[in-house]
Amino acid sequence: MYRYACLNNIAEIGLERFQKGFEKTDTLQDAQGILVRSADMHNMDMSDKLLAIARAGAGVNNIPIEECADKGIVVFNTPGANANGVKELVIAAMLLASRDIVGGIEWVNANASSAEALATVEKVKKQFAGTEILGKKLGIIGLGAIGVLVANSAESLGMKVYGYDPYVSVDSAWHLSRKINHVVDINDIYADCDIITIHVPYMESTKNMIDSSAISKMKDGVILINMARGGLVDEKSLIDAIDEGKIRKYVTDFADTTVAGHEGCIVIPHLGASTAESEDNCAMMAVDEIQDYLLNGNIRNSVNFPNCNMGVCQTTSRIAIMHKNMTSMISKFTSVMGNSGVNIAEMTNKSKGDYAYTLFDLDSPVTDDVLDNMSQIDGVLRVRVIK
Fold it and tell me: Cβ distance 135 to 159 under 8 Å?
């Protein structure tokens, strides 16, 4: 019996995908799997029983990734599951920033009780006039699942779309419209585009990537959209640029005291993936990932261990080994099994940075001696019997 715990509300349509043999627990120390959305896990005491964490969403800043890796705990996320919800908010952001819709609504609300004021609407509406997005140049930084959807939708709306991503995946490239202009120098995005939207992960190399230097290269009156992560934009430089008129509007899904309420900023309270459809999709993907790992040892969409898939075990037994990415590890594993008379039917080994993962399908049962000897090998983090 496998037990899982939920640190946040996880859509029931996802939890219903757990097969027989899984049960929910409210006791974290008993859980082999944890499903989480936004709960902060950095100061959480993780049980030795915990094997996997699945984040129902893309960002994993709330999870101690390296600590989990060192304990042999796989951390999953659900890239692309909420992509359409975020894409639609980006399109809305472009319209909100191009047309002063928010300003117009605020004026109406402020004068709602004054028939005299409302009668002047035809005279005052010109102060809320904006521009259309048709024919405008949109620059997309990051062509992952969300960036590709934004690019294709914007192109269908008649925009001239330019995409920058030096690491664009084959899958993303296949889904990208041929009409999208692929830019190899990010400075061309800054210099040429009327609207710029950011869709890259937050990491040390992307922290404050939109700084004073980047902003200085942008067109005067540019619209900047950030639905990815707040830390991607140096907000002090951003506010200076808005006050100077360099940036026309900044739309972000990440509220803080620097941008909230500041003129020229449209701040949304993290609604990008807050749709019923996105929450359902994330929940279903997270459950599928954690269930496949616990039952079969397969890894899909892990942020700290490599993807690895051997399907369902068809032999007598399967063992999974989480270990450091070090030389001669495979020979040490096979030596232990060979000395114990264990025949290997099939195996696979994958690595990701400092960590690696090895699956063995065996023609005989795994003894405790084999597991103990495997565990004693320097660099091994966890050994688990799947079957």
Answer: yes
| Same domain membership, residue 103 and residue 16 | no
Give me the residues paired with residue 75 across strands: 53
Instruction: Report the pLDDT averaged over residues 355-376.
Output: 95
Which amino acid, one-letter code, is at 83? A
- Residue 222's DSSP bridge partners are 247
The string of pLDDT tens digits covering residues 87-140 is: 999 999 999 999 999 999 999 999 999 998 899 989 899 999 999 999 999 999
Q: How far apart are CA 129 and CA 125, in angstroms?
A: 7
Task: Express as a percent the part of the chain with pLDDT over 70.
Answer: 99
In this structure, are 38 and 91 located in the same domain? no
Q: Is the same domain home to 237 and 88?
A: yes
Residue 337: give its domain's CATH number.
Answer: 3.30.70.260
Q: What is the DSSP string of 188-252?
A: HHHHH-SEEEE----STTTTT-B-HHHHHTSPTTEEEEE-S-GGGB-HHHHHHHHHTTSEEEEEE
Phi and psi angles of residue 8, each rounded to the nearest 5 degrees, phi first: -135, 175
Q: How confident is the model over 276-287, as pLDDT tens digits?
A: 999 999 999 999
List b or e across 112-140, with b for residues whose CB sees 16 or more CB atoms inside 10 angstroms: eeeeeeeeeeeeeeeebebeebeebbbbb
Helices (H) and strands (E) in the chain, counts: 14, 16
CB of 294 closer than 8 Å to CB of 33: yes
pLDDT band at 170; cut points 50, 70, 90: low
Q: Which of these, 139, 127, 135, lies nearest to 90 by C-alpha position?
A: 139
Split into its structural domains, the chain has a count of 3
Give yes or no: residues 205 and 287 share one domain: no
Q: What integer pLDDT is reported at residue 201 of this predicted model?
A: 86
Length of the chain: 387
Partners of 356 in beta bridges: 323, 351
Q: Under 8 Å CB-to-CB from 80, ≥6 apart: which residues?
A: 144, 145, 146
How far, in Å, are 227, 247, 341 from residue 251 at the CA level?
Answer: 8, 11, 63
Domain that holds residue 221: 83-121+128-267
Q: Contact, 62 vs 41, CB < 8 A? A: yes
